[in-house]
Specification:
The protein contains five helices and six strands, in the order H-E-E-E-H-E-E-H-H-E-H. It is an alpha+beta fold and about 140 residues long. It has one domain (about 5-135): Trna Endonuclease, Chain: A, domain 1, CATH 3.40.1350.10. It has a six-stranded mixed sheet, sandwiched between helices. Helix 2 links the parallel strand 3 and strand 4 (about 80-90). The longest helix has 12 residues, at about 65-80.
């Protein structure tokens, strides 16, 4: 299982054409992990979905997806900015709107909800050029 640190390295490499930068900001609580020319991406990972139709907890529970991160994503989206959450669960990747993620992920979102609300889902592994295309503006 790769960590969010591994995710960050990979996303920065994939989004290099969009001037992606890793962000570590202790002054602004909740600021996402990655900035790119069009917006921001928060990265989250979990080892697996829960058995059955339960809510996704584990690495994406209230302790891991902080209230400050949720507030940041909500505020940016409501102001009209691009803010995403890129979720990796085992080998599956989901690009989620930051507002939807802030309001549902780790609270009431089941695997099915995540699949239905993902801007893009890659089941079985990320297709890097598709992630770049999703985030690239025409």
């Amino acid at each position: 299982m790769s960590t969010e640190k591994d995710m960050r390295r990979r996303v920065i490499r994939v989004l290099r054409p969009l001037d992606a930068q890793s962000v570590e900001n202790g002054c602004v609580p909740g600021m996402p992990d990655v900035n790119y020319v069009h917006g921001w991406i928060e990265l989250k990972s979990a080892e697996r979905f829960p058995v059955g139709l339960g809510v996704l907890h584990g690495a994406v529970d209230k302790d891991h997806f902080t209230p400050q991160q949720r507030v940041w994503l909500r505020r940016r989206r409501r102001a009209g900015g691009e803010a995403w959450l890129l979720l990796k669960v085992a080998h599956d990747w989901f690009l989620l709107d930051g507002l939807w993620a802030a309001e549902h992920l780790g609270i009431d979102a089941t695997r099915n909800d995540i699949l239905q609300n993902a801007h893009r889902a890659w089941v079985g592994g990320l297709v890097e050029k598709e992630l770049l295309a999703c985030l690239k503006k025409s």
